[in-house]
Input
Amino acid sequence: MARLRETLPTDEEGIVEEAGRSLERYHDAALANDVDGQGREVTRLNALIANVWQSPPGERYRGSERFDCWHSAADWLLDQTAARDGDVPMYGQRGRFVLEIAGCRTDFRYDGIFGICGGGAHVIDLDRPFYSETGFRSFQVCPHHRILCTGGIDVDDYMARVCEAQLRSAQGIKGDRPIKLHEPPFGPLYWRGNQKFGPDDGWIRERRNADPAWRRGGFLAELPDIFVNGIGVKVEASGQMALVL
Output
């Protein structure tokens, strides 16, 4: 690793450019089911992250005070090389895009190559059934060893298949039986004394007001047939979401 680091850029611009090229090679290797090729790029990206963190040779857990830890440096680099919101990313590349899982439009956040679980799935349509009662579910789409066996399929197809397989496993579904979906509204249940409350999707709509993807021109706000609890939504000139009553 130390020798490899010496051959790689140490300035931020150079590191980001090299990481982008490395992710392209990782993506190509994943499509080709090239285990060795993926492994080389994982090692290369690890070395680039070490250069970002400025950790001493041979030490992964000590580096620049700019970052809390190696994972913070990795997050920074993956943010710099992320796909544009709304675009399907490459394998290993961080991205946020619309993914259909079990017939449900999903705001999917892929953490990229060094993700722990790696897949965060948020409900889009608040007036339609969804596979999570709360409107959110995490998926394990990033293997610990960082090596993917994709069969040569596109990223969105791969993610949908992996997520649906995990839903089927969690629900104990065998054969061709459909995945169980939950009716709206979505949100956590809570108790106050002996009284049960929820679910309530108000917290989801509140978060959307502060989310650029849901504001005017955002890739989610521009989707067709966006409704909240069966009521049409429009984006006002200010960028705020408004109910159409």
Q: What stands out?
A: The first strand starts at residue 95 and ends at 101. The longest helix spans residues 12-31. The beta strands are 95-101, 104-110, 118-123, 136-140, 190-192, 195-197, 227-228, 231-235, 241-243. The CA atoms of residues 9 and 77 lie 13 Å apart.
